[in-house]
Amino acid sequence: MANPSSFNRFSSRSLFQRIQRQIAKIEAISPTEVEDSLLLRILTQALVLVGIVATDVAAETEMSSWAIPLSIAGATWSWYSRRRPNVAVKFAIAILMLLALGAFFAGLWRQLNDTRLVLAELLVQLQVLHSFDLPRRKDLGYSMVIGLILLGVASTLSQTMGFGLLLLVFLAIAVPVLLLDYRSRLGLVASGLRLPLKQSGLSVKQLIGFLLAVLALGLGLFAIMPRLPGYQLQTFPVSAPIQRDFNDSTEIINPGYVRTGDASRGSGTGRSSRQGQEGGPGVMDEEFYYGFNQRINQNLRGQMKPKVVMRVRSQAEGFWRVLAFDRYLGQGWEISRNQAAKTVERSSWSYQFFLPRSPSLAQKKEVVQTYTVVAELPNLIPALAQAKVLYFPTRQIAIDPEGNLRSPLELLEGLTYTVISDVAYRDRTQLQQTSSRYPVNIQKHYLEVPDAIRDKVRQKTEAMLARSPQPITAPYEKALFLAQELKQRYTIQPDLPFLKQNEDLVETFLFKYEGGYPDHFATTLAIMLRSIGIPARLAVGFRPGEFNPFTGLYVVRNTDAHAITEVYFPNFGWWAFDPIPGHELIPPSVEEDQTFTVLQRFWQWVAGWLPSPLTSLLNQVFGAIAGWLARLLGWFLGLLTKGWLGLLTALMTAIATGFLGWLSWQGWRYWRYHYWLSRLPAMEQLYQQMLNQLAHRGYRKQPSQTPLEYGQQISQTQPPEQAVAIQGITHAYVHWRYGGTSPDLALIRRLLKTLTPSWRQRLRRKPASNHPVRSLG
After folding, report:
1. Phi/psi zone of residue 403: left (φ > 0), alpha (ψ -120 to 50 degrees), beta?
2. Which uninterrupted H or E stretch holds 119?
3. Residue 698: CB partners within 8 Å, gap ≥ 6?
4. 430-548+559-587: which CATH topology?
5. Closest Cα partner for 579 from 494, 481, 673?
6. Which whole number is the average pLDDT over 350-371?
7. For 192, left (φ over 0), alpha (ψ -120 to 50), or beta?
8. CA-based torsion, 389, 391, 395, 396: positive or negative
9. What is the phi-psi region of residue 634: left when phi exceeds 0, alpha when psi lies from -120 to 50, beta otherwise?
10. What is the pLDDT of residue 479?
11. Looking at beta carbons, which pairs linking 751-759 to residues 24 or more positions away fall under 8 Å?
12. Confidence of residue 775 (pLDDT cuts 50, 70, 90)
């Protein structure tokens, strides 16, 4: 009886031998399409390395430390092994790629909130493995595509101008890479180890000229490109989950105030102390805005040192609101219902928090904002007003009756979250018609004025309103007028002395110093409105910041933080006014068209050099054009949200527009050609028409050829009758041009007619690809 173990050993040995024989057969077959251009390989590898570095810079990772050396080693090994089968290496690469794919799915499960960096890591790993097997030109093409994808991922992650420099480097390398790749397809690239540019068909002057042309065209298109709403999906950028819940949802942690255990600076952990929050003289922190706390003390003096604190990507600019205060204390404000803050939890499978909203009759627009924290901030969450959905990495957030959002921990550097707000349009006509009958809850909390100053402030407010040329009755118009009066009649005083213990901020502002610190303007407006029965409160937050048209982000600094006044109008909610001199009276919002922001800012720079009447006229013309384009664009994008019928209509509209655009382009080219001909002498017209017809057949005259050389060479490729016509027209042109002889134009036209095919001949004509196109150079 046969021994099973011997049978198994025999089968295993036989199978192993068969695999060895198959590998030997495969290794006997030499690879095809081997790419021998060393310069193309080096530039392609440089292109990929730039993509890896760009991803590292944008995402602040360290993949380059291992990816770049391994990629260079793999590319070097591939060059020297390009003519070998390398079957064993390919098997190893395939296994490692499967492992990388497994790691990708594992990382994807951990980072469902933002998969861009996980995808970039997979591409980098695949490229490193792929660099060990690059014998063919199409393999280099895969590397080019990977480098381009990595650059695209980096562009979505980048928030600084550092990416722009890497983009220029990538473009400078991509131009010769594409040229070398095309020449390689034609078999024109020099091979071997020699790398002079002349042998590679590259001209430095031509490459630089082409690069500058591409940059000019790209920047021109970027300037006129509309800023479309950037978010159409319902999954938004947010940091990885943070496992931290509230110990106390009423707590506000501001690093700018002294904390327990660290009195030297406002850093550390633990519950914030009351030091520095109470009334009385004090000095502002140089880094952190003093107003982000449960109580704001406006008897502090000093200035902050500018520092970038966050970057915001938003569909519309606005006031990034942080806090609102309802109770006036004489020298500051506090949140009187702070203990009523409620904790909101999200589901375990989603990052969405659905926030409560007050009903409003105002027309709204959904605005998506993504915030990336650059420097430490309090545990308060900035957002545009009327936030309805928050994507935040913690499991809990808190919200108080003033609509202030809080996190369980401070907003640390690198934290990213997204807010969706229903921002209302400011319709002045509607707001003018609101009533003065306020809900009981609004009257209870937002009409309180200290008894000691109530009558005095009311009389001052009524006297200020009496300055209006026409009587003002609507609360909205009163708020506008008073804010404008404060801007014009009171000044910012950087050297304002401290308030004494019994002094009221609003009283000294109006009657003693006639001005104060910037935030004092917002406090004064709120109390003046309250004194005449209009509900108001103080809100603090950040101005939009500096918009960077190249990154599409608003760069917000700590010095952008300030206070505004929010006024309540029945059925329409709270609306902001900014009485600070030098600021816009109405904070920017969705009414400001952001579609062509880059072009608008360029125009503003140009308009500064033009006379005012011309600027006004051009503003009206450009405004009408921009408004029409924005409405047309909005109509087209609206079709995409109306189901299959809307999508089909949008597709048909796009096709029809493209076809009409092509017809217009062809018509313009036809008109331009004939207009150019009409300005030439008659003989020159006939000769140029002959050259044009022959060029359409594939026989283009080279600049280095004389008319006689071209006519003699082209005649050898044409039928006898047409060859005679070409020679006749050419000689007549040369005698007219250089000999001053008057040509027989009627004869020349008849000869040209023999070269012009009839419509029947055009139908019977073979495709242009079948015509022998000979080199005439």
Report:
1. left
2. helix 116-130
3. 768, 771, 773
4. C8orf32 fold (3.10.620)
5. 481
6. 87
7. left
8. negative
9. alpha
10. 95
11. 751/724, 751/725, 752/686, 752/689, 752/690, 752/725, 754/721, 754/722, 754/725, 755/690, 755/693, 755/694, 755/722, 755/725, 755/726, 756/693
12. very low
DSSP character for 340? G
Question: What b-and-e string marks burial along 81-120, b requiring 16 or more CB atoms within 10 Å of the CB?
Answer: ebeebbeebeeebeeeeeebeeebeeeeeebebbebbbbb
Contact 380, 405 (CB under 8 A): yes
- Comparing CA positions, the residue from 288, 340, 338 lying closest to residue 309 is 288
- What is the model's pLDDT at position 646? 76
Q: How far apart are CA 462 and CA 450, in angstroms?
A: 18
Q: What would you report as the CA-atom Rg of the chain, rounded to the nearest whole angstrom?
A: 37
Q: Mean of the per-residue pLDDT values for the chain?
A: 80
Q: Which residues pair with 541 in a beta bridge?
A: 321, 562
Please give the Cα distance from 432 to 478 (Å, whole number).
10
CA pair distance 579, 581, nearest whole angstrom: 6
pLDDT tens digits, one per residue of 701-737: 887 788 888 888 888 888 888 888 888 999 899 888 8
Instruction: Give the range among 214-223, 453-462, 701-710 with minimum mean pLDDT.
Output: 214-223
Give ∠ CA 435-437-443 in degrees, rounded to 5.
130
Alpha carbon of residue 153 to chain centroid? 12
Q: Are strands 320-325 and 561-569 parallel, antiparallel or unpaired?
A: unpaired
Q: Which of 107, 152, 98 is nearest to 126 (CA)?
A: 98
Q: pLDDT tens digits for 61-74?
A: 888 888 888 888 88
Q: Of 553, 460, 436, which Cα lies nearest the Cα of 510?
A: 460
Cα distances (Å, whole numbers) of residue 720 to 669, 725, 730, 755, 774: 32, 9, 15, 11, 18
The band of 21, judged by pLDDT with boundaries at 50, 70 and 90, is low
For the cut 70, the answer to whether the pLDDT of residue 321 exceeds it is yes
Q: Is the alpha carbon torsion for 155, 158, 164, 168 positive or negative? A: negative
The predicted model gives 310-327 an average pLDDT of: 92
Where in the chain do CATH 3.10.620.30 domains reside?
430-548+559-587
Strand locations in 300-386, DSSP E? Answer: 300-301, 308-314, 320-325, 327-328, 332-334, 342-345, 352-354, 364-373
Rounded to whole angstroms, the Cα distance separating 662 from 559 reads 51
Question: How far is the C-alpha of 69 from the C-alpha of 688, rounded, in Å?
Answer: 58
- Bridge partners of 565? 538, 577
